[in-house]
Amino acid sequence: MTQWKRGTLEFDEEQVKHIDLCLGCRTCEGVCPSGVPYGRIIEAGRADVEDQRRPSIKRAASRAALRQLVGHRGRLRAAGDATRLAQKLRLTSVSRSGRMLPKLAPRFQPPASNVAPAIGPRKHRVAFLVGCVMPILYPQSHDAAVRLLQLAGCEVWFPPDEQCCGALFAHNGDLEGAGRLRETNSRIYDAGQFDALVVDSAGCGAHLKDFYPALKNRVKDLSEWLAEAGLPEPKRDVKMRVTYQDACHLAHAQRIKKQPRDLIRAIPGVDWVEMRHADICCGAAGLYSTLEPDMSNRILQEKLDDLAATRADVVAVANPGCQMQLEAGLRKRGSAMKVLHVSELLARAY
Known about the structure:
By secondary structure, the protein is α/β, with parallel strands linked by helices. It has helices at residues 2-6, 13-21, 27-31, 38-52, 57-70, 73-88, 96-100, 134-137, 139-151, 167-171, 175-190, 202-211, 222-229, 248-251, 258-265, 288-291, 293-310, 320-333, 342-347, and strands at 115-116, 124-128, 154-157, 196-199, 219-221, 241-244, 271-272, 314-317, 338-341. Helix 12 (202-211) links the parallel strand 4 and strand 5. Helix 13 packs across helix 15 and helix 17 (293-310) packs across helix 18 (320-333). The longest helix is centred in the C-terminal third of the chain and has 18 residues, at 293-310.
């Protein structure tokens, strides 16, 4: 990539294929003794590639969808409503991407006041990232996350007019689009007062920590924040055999592995089982499963074998891409194993 920028190496599509096949999982960062920020390097490299290559129809469509849909809340909501109707009419089953989607419930909506009060004495005021795809694909994860924050004594503020954080844009080489979203969101965050910005999507959290310097150390993954703030004693047992899939951008980019495990193991009734290779990517990787479906599926099949070996009732996750990828794979195999966001699993104890 450096040689391309310097003009010492001719741009070649065969070489680009190596960048295309990179998951961007950032595992290399976790083991690099020099702390090289490979995630940022890959994103910058992909931006250079997109400036030079002749995009395929699939990649051009993906970039257009990001800029014209994901970056606009109203359009994305309309697309979610249309997809929900298409699912009822069984129209989404005709394409691979449609078959991977979860069954859509009504989207998550913050309270009209944009504030959810703490349950009990208020200890903290936190902002909550609603985001772009999470409120449409997995509103139940947001519902559970907000309730857990309230139980932890947090007043939860939902920043009005907040946009997509830009993670999907940056991961796919559109740093210009990601930058515009950062400028918009930064103005909104600057106008608010909060102790932390809590995020329940690992990819978004990693992007916010890397690309929003004004937030400094205030971006917190949900499990990271709950481990710090503390939860009340659980009220009921959750009698399930549970394993956990590390989200790449949580384990490798944010170095958070212990907190979600500790929270899950503290749930009464849980029969915990550690999965083999839990910190290896499931193959979702943002839009990777759409752009590189063959390699994504190869990675997924190995992950499903590891999951099956645990004989768990539930696999807990911390990222919507992982959840959708694993759900689709388990569904295709006819497995009864459920995929739940960590927030949903924890909320069952209350």
